[in-house]
Amino acid sequence: MTEQQPEVHVRAVPIPVDPAEPVVVGTVDASPAGRCAAVGGAQPEALPLDAGTTMFLDGYGKAKRLPRNSRATGLADAMRPGFARHDLVAGRALVVGSDKDSGKPVDVGDDVVRSVPTS
């Protein structure tokens, strides 16, 4: 039997696929189970955007033919120039801060929040 990890609540940016759905910064559970739920119940894949920011996305989103998430792809490209030339984010995404030493989830920074494309 595996032990369930406790919830880890942090300020984060969930990025929905539908551009008509607003991006709402809020507090989410960033534990492994919470990250899984945030990306639609899938196995979350971590995409480091910089030393203090991580985007979680559906690791099989492209294989499942989930729709392109233009806002998440745009943010990834802004923080990792060239990303969109060779890759894309398919499905929902969750952006959290990450502790530079431990890698554990922390509150996402205001600079990242301001960088999220709204459309």
Summarize this entry quickly.
With 119 residues, the protein is of the alpha+beta class. It has four helices and six strands, in the order ββαββααββα. Strands 1, 2, 3, 4, 5 and 6 form a six-stranded antiparallel sheet that branches.
Entry keywords:
119 residues; alpha+beta; 6-stranded antiparallel beta sheet; 6 strands; globular
Q: What does this 3D model show about the protein?
A:
The N and C termini lie far apart (43 Å). 23% of the residues lie in helices and 27% in strands. Strands 1, 2, 3, 4, 5 and 6 form a 6-stranded antiparallel beta sheet that branches. The protein has one domain (9-115). The protein is an alpha+beta fold. It has 4 helices and 6 strands; from the N terminus they run ββαββααββα. The protein has helices at residues 32-38, 70-79, 83-86, 110-115, and strands at residues 9-15, 26-29, 44-50, 53-58, 93-98, 105-106.
Q: What structural class do you assign from the helix and strand content?
A: alpha+beta
Quote the distance from N terminus to C terminus. Answer: 43 Å
Mean pLDDT: 90
- From the spread of the alpha carbons, the general shape counts as globular
Whole-number count of domains: 1
How many DSSP E strands?
6
How would a crystallographer describe the biggest sheet?
A: 6 strands, antiparallel
Low-confidence stretches: none
